[in-house]
Amino acid sequence: MTLESLAIEVGLAYSYMGGIERGQKNPTLAVVERIAEALNVEPVLLLTPNAG
Predict the structure, then answer these.
(1) In the chain, where the domains are located
(2) How far apart are the first and last CA of the chain?
(3) Which CATH superfamily is domain 3-47 in?
(4) Which of 2, 3, 43, 44 is most buried, with most CB under 10 Å away?
């Protein structure tokens, strides 16, 4: 899945998703949950450093 397709699926701007990826933006818990659902992972996995 590309960052662009993930942004579309989650309903966020591509630039905002890029900011999250680069650590420049801090998503809300609701956004983390939406991203986790789109990736089919538990939200805690996205919040754990070096978990991937």
Answers:
(1) 3-47
(2) 15
(3) lambda repressor-like DNA-binding domains (1.10.260.40)
(4) 43
Write down the residue that tokens 């805690």 correspond to: 44
Model confidence pLDDT, tens digit, residues 9-35: 999 999 999 999 999 999 999 999 999
Residue written as token pair 């650590």: 23
User: pLDDT at position 52, please?
Assistant: 56
Angstrom CA distances, 14 to 10, 11, 38, 48, stand at 10, 9, 15, 23
User: Which amino acid, residue 28?
Assistant: T
Residues 6+ apart with CB under 8 A from 30: none
Structure tokens at 28: 């809300």
